[in-house]
Amino acid sequence: MFLNKAVRAGVLPARDSGLAIFLPVFISVCILSLMPTIRLLLESVVPDGTFSLEILRGIMDESGTWKAFRHTLFVGGCATMLATLLGSAMGLLVGLTDIRFRKALTFCFMMPMMIPPQITALSWIQLFGPSSVLLNCLGIAPAPGTPHPMYSPFGIILLLGIQQAPLIFLSLKAGLSAMPREMVEAARVCGAGNERVLRDIVLPLMTPALTAGMALAFVSCIGNFGIPAMLGIPAGYTVLTTLIYQRLAMFGPEVIAEAASLSVLISMLALFGILLQSYMLNRRDYRLVGAPSELLKYRLGKFRPLAESASWLVILLVLVVPLCALFFSSLIPSFGVELNAETMTFSNYANVLFKHDATTRAFINSFSLAGGAALILCLVGIPLGYFLVWQKNSLLRFMSPLMELPYALPGVVLAIGCILLFLKPIFGVSIYGTVWIILVAYLARFLPMGLRPVIGGFTQTDRVLEEAAQMCGAGFFRRMKDIIVPLIMPAAATGGLFIFLAAFNELTVSVLLWTSGSETLGVVIFNLDESGNAVLASAVSILVIAAILLLMTVLSFLGRKAPKGVIPWQG
Hints:
Layout: H1 2-8, H2 19-45, H3 54-61, H4 63-96, H5 102-114, H6 117-127, H7 133-138, H8 153-177, H9 181-189, H10 194-205, H11 207-223, H12 226-232, H13 240-248, H14 255-282, H15 304-329, H16 347-355, H17 357-390, H18 394-403, H19 405-408, H20 411-422, H21 435-459, H22 464-471, H23 476-504, H24 510-513, H25 521-530, H26 534-558
């Protein structure tokens, strides 16, 4: 009786509509999306089974906490402003003008976001300083003993801004694509020129897209670990993510509770950014009426060569030159040796691929974890998207914002939540200290990333074939196997490749969860650099970048069959 009422209310699907698969999928989503965050909150206020704010109060009373908090807010805010300037300029240029090679420009501008933050930091470290192989080859290296300019708040802000600029770019580009053509055409009929249309119509209408992009960039900046760790720790400049990492390196019964309290502090800072975004958007009505417009393609005329040259110069400075410095650094036998015909060697690549045990394990672990997460989330995402879009299940629609929680919060928060959740055995089994806890964290973090293309696929696919099969008596599993999966597989595969790419590059979560034998590539690069083995770290980084380029190329080919807009550099 209860089951029938739940079915009629839209809370549960009927037996012939996938009830048997809905329940395990729903339970899995609840565990992945809610349990780590709930466990984290409980640990911060109920550390020993009784409600207490002592640990949280002690953390808040420490001067080091507020120092790291100020640093986090400063670099996060400044990096967001820098990302906004870069992303907005490139977004308006690509989205509004007749600039040539826009797809290639978009692809290259997206690359800094695809490259892991620890590799970005390492490439800029290798670019500057007295020991820079590239600058020494050019004869313009600074004198020995000169302070490295990247080991500073300026270096952290610069790299965070470069890496998050694509978020602003994508958000603005999507907003321009959704802008109704009627408003622009009406303004032009009334005699408004391109500059007036841009100032009075386009830019005000882009406020929601720009604000959303800035909020995402801010949350990503304050949750980033790789860049502040590699540039800030050597300079003694601590932010909240690196403070948590340093606390966990200590021992004692209160360490986990202190890390949980610091994670809650980061979450509150991220929530502040999201609430500020909502406040700014609620001050005005930004609803749009009308069909989306085509690209305006303002004619640049004689300024087009200048605009194109400036755009490719930015790509050269923020992407090509640092990667060249990284590649040159991988060709020397040891740190400090000048690169020439006699010293150039590829032995570092042979070492990391065949002789360095930790690196070999890291390649295997990263491929296995990324591939496993992508496969599992593809299998979960198809029925989940089916229940969300085609059946419009009310229970899952209520859960939909909660599914985004592990992805929206900084990765360090999820990692601490997973530690707390699996620190003690569940049903007599503990996965803490094993590679499986990293897999669970990846599944929780990247579920929304895999689900979005699937939802887009269901939204753009007519349900008539599935309904016809149901009328002919085909059961749910038969419809799923013969109709639903073949129709949605291109979108699901695209989401799976995005998951693989993100998990393959991940550091913030795995750096807090790894143990000996479960190293990932991000952890190995970070550890090699910390131990002074920069040439091996550079070699591993170049191999990772080559894998990223290969994956992005595969995504580009697969994107031809995926829903429109899924591959950002093809839109």
